Amino acid sequence: MTHASPAANSGAPQRFPVVVVGAGPAGLTTGNILRAASVDCLVLETETREFIEQRPRAGVIEEWAVRGLEKRGLARNLLDRAELHTACEFRFDGERYRFPYGELTGSHHFVYPQPLLVTDLVREYADVRGGRIRFGVRDVRLHDLGTDRPSVSYLCPDTGERRVVHCDFVAGCDGARGVTRAALPPERVRIARHDYGIGWLALLAEAPPSADCVLFGCHVRGFAGQMPRSPEVTRYYLQCPPGDDPENWPHERVWAELQERLGAAGVPPLTEGRLIEKRVLDMHDYVVEPMVHGRLFLAGDAAHLVAPIAAKGMNLALHDAFLLGDALVAHLTMGDDGGLAGYAQACLRRVWDYQEFSQWLSEVYHGTASGDPFRAGTTLARLRRLFTSRAAAAAFAEQYLGTAARY
């Protein structure tokens, strides 16, 4: 919610053209774009620097997003260290089917865990480009967003005093549980939400990947996925009931289900290892409209969440940040308002495209385990079509890589 103007004795006020709330990929990319144009900004983050640089998150970055980072001088380590993936593999009906999307499109995925990207971005922003950032802040509040004199206040982690920062714009990049989305007037906001009614057990294993690409297991017992993260660590997913307790999944049960759901004729068993993370994710999507209120511009998960079904979340966050950072620079350095005026519309076109693909892909992943013979049959028909129709394969590859959504 929007708070009343802070009290006059709330500490010596500061002023920055832009305050960025949240130091994830969206916030740090926006901040880096501003600093590259010599626009001052302040990034506020509730967690510590060490925490955000180690927090396990996504790892698949689409090629257009990497080129966008490269264009802005933010991809040096990524290009040196990321793995390139040009194929994925579906396993269903006891067989394996390799899908060579690189051959079909000439494009590929980069696999670069989000903590590494965040580490790169915060180093570039704070240590190289001299951007101001405050970690560990508490009780962030937004004020007077509907005026041309907005401000943000927060409790200083060192003194406990409330600090006030005046600004021209606020970039809300603080994720699904942050304060910036709550600042939108409830009578003016619409949140379109879709619940899939399933959960995924998200796992990190101290084990090398058992294949050189992403694996999708479409099985009557439920979906399973393997997503390589590094030569030593692998991300796995297992379909489970929504709200399930991770403690219901001991080591032996996890590996037995992964071996069953990702098994196929002629392939060796998965390489097992110690499980270093177990979380249950309830699959749901949402889109917040409008993404803009007065001088507040939302980006990333603060504005929209896409379930990890299609590995699109970090890519959408970067897309928002490219548009928002460029639009703020154009306004603040040249007085050009075109980018800010069209920001939400440009973001939402890609958001809705990715949401639709996520829904389609969910049926491919989960239809065989639905218990409905009709859904199971149509799911298998979709899967077989990918490997018998070049047109169907090309359409899937474009959506999977994000190359169809050129806006």
From TrEMBL:
SUPFAM superfamilies: FAD-linked reductases, C-terminal domain, FAD/NAD(P)-binding domain
UniProt superkingdom: Bacteria
Domain FAD-binding: 16-357
InterPro entries for the chain: FAD-bd (IPR002938), FAD/NAD-bd_sf (IPR036188), RIFMO-like (IPR050641)
Keywords: FAD, Flavoprotein
Protein name: 4-hydroxybenzoate 3-monooxygenase
Organism of origin: Streptomyces olindensis
